[in-house]
Amino acid sequence: MKFMKTSFLPLIAALVMMGCNSEKKSEQVENQIPVESLSSPAEGNSSLPFLSIDDDKKLILSWVERMEDSVVLKFSTLKDKSWSEPGIIASGSDWFVNWADYPSVVRSGNQMISHFLAKSSPEMFSYDVHLIQSADQGKNWSTDFIPHNDGTLTEHGFVTLLPFDGLFFAAWLDGRNTGGGSHSDGGHEMAGGAMTIRGAFISHSGELSGEALLDDRACDCCQTGGAITENGPIIVYRDRSEEEIRDMSIVRYVDGEWTEPKIIHNDDWKIAGCPVNGPRASAIGPNLVIAWFSAANQNPEVKVIFSQDNGETFDDVVMVDNSTPIGRVDISMIDETTAIVSWLDKSADKTEIKAATISIDGEVKNEMVIAETDPARKSGFPQMEVIEGMAYFAWTEIGEENAVRVTKIDLPSLL
Fold first, then answer.
1. 290-324 pLDDT per residue, tens
2. Per-residue pLDDT at 254
3. In angstroms, rounded to a whole number, what is the distance separating the alpha carbons of residues 223 and 238?
4. 172 backbone φψ class: left, alpha, beta (φ>0; ψ -120 to 50)
5. What percent helix, strand, coil does the chain show, rounded to 5?
């Protein structure tokens, strides 16, 4: 959760602007796919959108609105092509609000759970994960609570929330071993120990169980991701070796136990600082797909990989874009054999949200531009979800007042 100082930014800029490497992505033809703009339920100075799908195949959008002295977390559900009246989840004047570490909300039946971050002390990198729940589809919300009990004034965030087996599962980056040190020039090294990944199951009444250390050394400020396979939850994240190799890893919940961390693919990206660019995952049955960004050897790349056995083994890596991507990926399964991936691409004169379809046999097709955007941090991480033949996208449009925008595309026209 250590965000780059100015001295480190030129390195990242150089990485993302480098040309293609010798490995070519699959042949693609950029299609003029109709992109339909939707009205947005977000009002005022809104940002940090998050998309999820409930059990009834309804789309949920959450976002934050900034007031004079506080931040409000809101949500709305897309019903019959129109958004419900926005509901308020929580608000506060002591929140930690960051372009890369955004709140989320998920729903299973009538039960909902959401998270936000709040400061635990005046120190810059001292904040906690706060969870809040609703038993009536968001009409009323419980008192918020903290899922980690370490009591340290350190960083906690980058949460993944998943409904599972009548419970919710939460995973987060946990800085209890870092000692609350300050960032060093040129990277995100803490004065103490390493960042960890931890998780716990949460009942609908807010009781915690199965608290677990998932990895005792992880990259410091990349988003975690997750999905539910036939075996149960999986969590994906950027790992961190003693040699500063920061490739993607997975842990899986199998027969009531968490597996040991396993590298998904050896990119061998050695970088002495966190690139703030985490993976995303999606699953249908035993078929799992993961997307991520890497810049090993100063070659920026967006990659995708499939597993057909719940993440136990993986197929060959699929190169989606190795021209000028800057990452910020998302991915969703369309059906058992096809996924759609989105990412940011920065050319010399513009930055675009792009998307493409990928089949389980490795074919990349239908590369398309969803929208132009801004490469600045405050534009955040675009979100994507697939529901009933439509892919929905949400992102922050930068202006005098930032605004959440929403679009969709018709997937049958691509398949």
1. 999 999 999 999 999 999 999 999 999 999 999 99
2. 97
3. 8
4. beta
5. 5, 50, 45
Q: Of the candidates 262, 256, 270, which has an alpha carbon nearest to the alpha carbon of residue 288?
A: 262
Question: Mean pLDDT of all residues in the chain?
Answer: 91
Task: Classify residue 378 as left (phi > 0), alpha (psi -120 to 50) or beta.
Answer: alpha
Distance CA 155, CA 161 (A): 18
**Beta partners for residue 79, in sequence order:** 82
Strand pairing class (82-83; 71-79) = antiparallel
Domain residues of the chain, as ranges? 6-413
Burial class, 194, CB count within 10 angstroms (exposed 0-12 / middle 13-18 / buried 19+): middle
> Domain spanning 6-413 has what CATH number?
2.120.10.10
Q: Are 365 and 357 in contact (CB under 8 A)?
A: yes
- DSSP-assigned letter for residue 194: -
Between CA 153 and CA 148 the distance in angstroms is 12
What tokens appear for 7 in the block?
Answer: 């001295």
Burial label, 49 (beta-carbon count in 10 A; 0-12, 13-18, 19+): buried
Q: How far is it, in rounded angstroms, from Cα 7 to Cα 10?
A: 7
Task: Find all residues with CB under 8 Å of 400, minimum gap 6, and list them.
Answer: none
Kindly list the distances between the CA atom of residue 139 and the CA atoms of 9, 47, 84, 286, in Å, as whole numbers in the listed order. Answer: 43, 22, 12, 35
Nearby residues of 22 by Cβ (< 8 Å), 6 or more positions away: none
H-run or E-run covering 14: helix 9-17
Q: How far apart are CA 264 and CA 365, in angstroms?
A: 23
Residue bearing tokens 């941090």: 377
Report pLDDT digits (tens) over 97-124: 999 999 999 999 999 999 999 999 999 8
Are 202 and 211 spatial neighbours (Cβ–Cβ below 8 Å)? no
Cβ(82)–Cβ(137) below 8 Å:
no
Instruction: Collect all residues with Cβ–Cβ distance below 8 Å to 223 and sequence separation of at least 6.
Output: 100, 101, 158, 237, 277, 278, 279, 280, 381
Burial 275-290 (b: 16+ CB within 10 A, else e): bbbbbbbbbbeebbbb
Residue of 87, 92, 165 whose CA lies nearest to 130: 92
DSSP state, 17? H
